[in-house]
Structure formats: structure tokens, C-alpha cells
Amino acid sequence: MDRLDVFKIIAQQAAKGELTFPANVNATLKLQQALDDPDSHIETAAHMVMAEPLLSARVVALANSSAYNRSGNEIANVRAAVSRLGFATLKSIVASVIVRQLGSQITDPQLRAKAAKLWEHTAHVAALSQVIAKKVTHVDAETAMFAAIVHEVGGFYLLSRAEEYPGLLDSNTEDWLEYGEKLIGRGVLRQLEVPDQVLQAVEGLWHGGAPFPPRTLGATLVLANDLAPVASPLHPPEVAERRRAAALIDFGIGGSTLHTILEESAEEIESLAAALLV
């Protein structure tokens, strides 16, 4: 069976909702559903977060990042961290745990390395998306960060299944971009019940291009992806090179420029990315 046939099989399963998630992902999905309950309270959310050690560490780390800790007062407990971050950001962190858990069962060293690199790419795109949304495109920053966290979830799902098909990801291939990324990614995003505006933004990234000057959620995601210092390991090298070239473009924003804003926000971006990589 060739690579494209495998992508088609997994994509068909994803489109039908026939997805195989590790047990720890299913547990975190229940937490995600609980947070969507309008009657959820801070105390309830804090207790649920504390039941997940990895999630607890990430929530506290993000709350202490420069993006959320404007006062400089460090937080050392989950309840205070949840209160500072709010539910919108907490949902993004839960999504980040789900994405990373997809790769947690991988035993093959090469696939594990790809999963680690893909998360590094994702963390940088998420940090850039949050800052670009606040300071450049002026869309909702928490939604932008959430969209960035889930934009490669199809790739993580593929990595979680790749051990079933030896040699599937031995080399970079355009097949993933042309077939697998869109269909597998869409199926997984729908299974995770991401909002339509997030799904549309991610699909815009898959299809390439964005309105200029950037003013939408989709354009925010495209720009952050182009600017990310770490490329997706599932994309051929020439794709990463084209995106790096596109990221050299500068443009004016009010009385400043994109590059100036990013330079001034470098500490905030680095702090956000580091918190996500915990």
C-alpha cells in the first residue's frame, strides 16, 4: 500500500468520525466538554485541572508568563492561575494538552522526534498568533491562540497512527499537503468540536494566501505560521523556505511597522512559547 492510499484510508476514517484516540486524550476531552458548560465555575475548573499534572504545570506556567503576569506577581497555585487566565485561555491550554497527548503513545524514536518538532512549531505559532492578534490584526487574541494550537492537530493524529504503517513518514512529501493535511485535519478538528470560525481560519492556512493587510483570524494564523522560527517537520523543506521568504515582508501599522512591533514584543512571544513548551 503506497503513502497516498494510507492517507486516504485515515482521511476517510476521520471524515466518518472513526478516530482512534489514546485513553488519556479521551479523559482530557471530557474536561474540555466540562469547560464548555456555561454553569462551570472557577473552583470546579481548578479542581479538574489539578487532576491532570501536565495541565496543572502548563496553566501555572502560562499564568506567570509576561503576557498574563503584567504585575510581576508570580502565582504558585492552580486556582489563582485559572482565575488570572480565564476560561477562554484555559480552553486553549486544554486543547494544547490534547494535541500533545496524541503523540504521547508513540514509541518509534523518529516519529517521537517529529512529534516534538511539530509541537515546537505549534508553540511558536501560538505565541506569535496571540501577539499579532493583539497588536496587528486586532482580532480576539485568545481565539487566535486557540486556532494556532489546533492548526496542526491533523499532523499529530497522523503521527499517532504512523506506527501502524511502517515507512509512512520516512521522507517529507507533497502528498501530506495536497491530501492528508486537509482531509485528516478537518476530520480531527470536527471531532474536537472546534468553532466554525477556527475551522475556517485553519482551512485558510491549508489553502495558502491571506488578505493583505492582515485583518482577519485566518490572516493572523497565516502570518504567525510564516513568521514561526521552527517549521513543521511534515512539510517539505521548500515550503518552509517559501514561508520564511514571505515573512521578510514588512508593512506599516499605525505609526509603527510589523517588524518593530515584533521586536518590541519579543520577550512576550518568547515567554508564551516557553510556557506552552513546558
Secondary-structure element series = HHHHHHHHHHHHEEHH
- Average pLDDT, all residues: 86
Number of helical regions? 14
Query: How far do the termini sit from each other?
Result: 38 Å
What's the CATH topology label?
Hypothetical protein af1432
| Uncertain residue segments | none
Shape: globular
Largest sheet: 2 strands, antiparallel
Total E-strand runs: 2
Q: Write the CATH homologous superfamily.
A: Hypothetical protein af1432
- The side-by-side strand order for the widest beta sheet comes to 1-2
Proportion of helical residues: 55-70%
* The number of domains: 1
Please give a structural write-up.
With 278 residues, this protein is mainly α. It has one domain (3-276): Hypothetical protein af1432 (Orthogonal Bundle), CATH 1.10.3210.10. It has helices at residues 3-15, 23-35, 42-50, 53-63, 78-101, 109-137, 141-150, 153-161, 174-191, 196-207, 217-227, 237-246, 258-264, 266-276; strands at residues 252-253, 256-257. Helix 7 (141-150) crosses helix 10. The N and C termini lie far apart (38 Å). The model has no long low-confidence stretch (mean pLDDT 86).
